[in-house]
Every structure is written in C-alpha cells, then in structure tokens.
Specification:
DNA-binding; Winged helix DNA-binding domain-containing protein; AlkZ-like; 17% strand; single chain; 36% helix; 5-stranded mixed β-sheet; GMP Synthetase, Chain A, domain 3; DNA binding; 3-stranded mixed β-sheet; alpha+beta
Length: 365
C-alpha cells in the first residue's frame, strides 16, 4: 500500500522544490531550470518570482541572462509565454506541440480558410528577414492571405512556429509590444526533433511533485499522460493523497517534514506555483481558489503565510510612495502581519528603488 501524504506534507515538498522554504544562492539560470520554467505572460512577474526565491537577486541578473540568450521568453506550457532556459526550450519545445496544436481550437470559426502548410512557411520567410512584432507579422500575412482572419493568422504562427521574444533595455527586459524572432536563429540550434515527453515529466516532478497524472496534464496542457507515467512508474516512488489519489515522485526528491517552518513570501501574478496542479489544495484552499482569477482571466498575485496562499496583494506607486496592499482571505494573526509587513517592505524597495517611503497595508476581511 502506498504511503499517504497529507495536504501539508505536499505543501512542504512543493515549497522545497520551488525555492520557497528559503532563498537559495544559485545562478538564476539554475533557478529557472529547477522551476522547470516560469510563466511570463507579462514581463515583470518573473523578476518578482526570482526575487522571492533567489538570494541576492538583482534586476540586472535577469537582464543579463535574456540578453546572453541563456534564458528565453517563449510560448511553452499551457500554450502561454514562459521564461525557460535555452537548453530546456530546445529540449522540450517539440514535446509541447500537442498542447499548442490543441490551443488552436480556440479560433473556432475564425480559422476558416487557414492553411497551416502555407501560412507557417510564409511566416518563417518573413521572420528570416529579421525580428518583427506580431502586429507587423499579421499585417504582412494578411496581404498574402487576405481571406483569412488576421488574428487567426497571428495565433497560428505563435502556436506552430518556434519563436522567442527579443529582449530590450526596458526596465523589465521586454516592452509591451515585443519583437519575435525564429528560435533557431536566436539560439543557433533547432528544437529537438523527437518529443522528450518522459524527460519533461521527470522535470515536472522535480519542480512540483509529488503529483498525479491530472496535475501533470494541468501544468503542461498535454493530454493523455497516463501512458507516460506508466512507462516511468518503475523508476518512481508512488504515494497517495488524503483522497486516495495516486501521486508520483522522484525517489530522492526532497520531502521535508510537514512541520518545517515556511517563511512569509509574496508570489507575483501568474506564478506557476498556483497553476501547476489540478488539485491545488497544497497551496490554496478550495474555498479561496475562485479569488485567484479575475473576470478577464488574470491570475492574481498571492502572499503565502505558513506555506499557503492566505490572500492577494496589489502594489501602487504614487508621489514616491510604494504601497503594498494585502487583502487576506480571512483575518491574519499578528505574527503573520508582522512577517508579511517586513517581507512586503523589502519587496516594495526592490520593485520601486526610487521610493522615498514604503507602506504595507492590510485590509479588513
């Protein structure tokens, strides 16, 4: 019979792998590799996510890594933009193609007349001339395919052509409208020809395990991973959660005692930790989960106390005052408020180094 892991035990195991039990003095490329990528739907959140995980992290560290091409921002898991190492992009981009193909279904009737066998080579030819914004790519493709929806053209290129975003000297390394370029041109190598799905799942477990097949499917967007885990089963440890569901893990992965202290931490918007499992109780209670996402599908920034998401936070900067507002799901004890205030002030100083004053405010429940 498989050993049962409590929700709290799963919490501590996941925090250990996510560099959230203590900040670790590791190079940021190593940190991003250990996290198996960071969601980067917008450019700023990975900077905050690394600050909260890596000892001594500076904005310039991430700037350097994307400019020297050891890290790239590209479409990967769940068909969303991620910050990943160049090595992981080339190793796993092909494994993600079923997810990207499935994402094409959102086009619906807008895909009428879309012929990928013609559109993708045409887009490649455009980008071989140099980086372009997607507005420019769509406009040029529309000239060549005037009867196809321009948004469908752009989306098809994002999903079907391996591309990376070109960094700039903007504060958060990428402007609101970034240029894209061909991945093989930027990295000097093409994505692996064979999908390394088994290796990707092992990396997922290293970053987010112990986890179920459903968890892995939720994180990756890949369908039907049961066969993959059956292949891997002989090399894995098998546990059960408190509801009897089967969980897989690497034999030597960290699984700290569930009473190991977990410090106050702030996670940015879209942080992978709150998106990486089908059953997210290891991070956020089911009753609080609806508060995570806005009506327009933004994933809110959360703060952790004793390892779990206890509320959302927002930041404002006016008249040289950086204000972090905490909106807890339920009343916080004084010890939590004290620890979160200290951590919040440090975060405010990081995000707004020119501030003359930092304020951490906790709203009433």
């Amino acid at each position: 019979m498989a050993d049962t892991l409590s929700v709290r035990a799963l919490n501590r195991a996941t925090l250990a792998r996510q560099l959230l039990l203590s900040r670790e003095p590791v190079p940021i490329t190593d940190a991003v590799a250990r996290l198996c990528g960071m969601q980067a739907q917008e450019p700023k959140p990975p900077f905050l996510g690394l600050w909260t995980r890596v000892a001594g992290f500076q904005v310039s560290d991430l700037h350097s890594a994307v400019h020297d091409r050891s890290l790239v921002r590209a479409t990967m898991m769940r068909a969303t933009l991620h910050l990943v190492t160049a090595d992981d992009y080339t190793a796993f981009r092909t494994a993600m193609q079923p997810t990207l193909d499935g994402a094409m279904r959102v086009l619906g009737d807008r895909a009428k007349g879309l012929d990928l066998s013609r559109v993708v080579p045409a887009a490649r030819a455009l980008l071989e001339d140099g980086p372009r914004t997607f507005n420019a790519v769509r406009a040029l493709l529309q000239e060549e395919f005037p009867d196809v929806n321009d948004r469908a053209l752009g989306y098809a290129v994002r999903m079907c052509l391996p591309l990376v975003m070109v960094p700039t000297e903007d504060r958060w390394a990428f402007p609101r409208t970034s240029e894209f370029t061909l991945a093989d041109t930027w990295l000097g190598t093409s994505p692996a020809s064979v999908p390394a799905t088994d290796e990707l799942m092992l990396r997922y477990l290293a970053a987010y395990g112990p986890a179920s097949v459903a968890d892995a499917q939720t994180w990756s967007g890949l369908p039907a991973l049961s066969e993959v885990f059956e292949r891997l089963r002989p090399a894995l440890r098998v546990f059960a959660d408190d509801k009897g569901r089967e969980l897989f893990d690497l034999p030597d992965a960290p699984r700290p005692d569930e009473d190991v202290p977990a410090p106050a931490r702030f996670l940015p918007e879209f942080d992978g930790l709150v998106l990486a499992h089908a059953d997210r109780r290891r991070i956020i209670a089911d009753r609080d989960r609806p508060s995570l996402t806005t009506k327009n599908l933004r994933v809110r920034a959360v703060f952790l106390w004793d390892g779990f998401a206890r509320g959302i936070w927002e930041q404002d900067y006016k008249r040289k005052v950086a204000t972090l507002t905490l909106r807890p799901f339920e009343p916080l004890p004084p010890t939590a408020v004290k620890a979160l205030t200290a951590e919040g002030e440090a975060l405010a100083r990081f995000t707004e180094p020119g501030a003359k004053e930092t304020v951490v405010a906790v709203t009433d429940v």
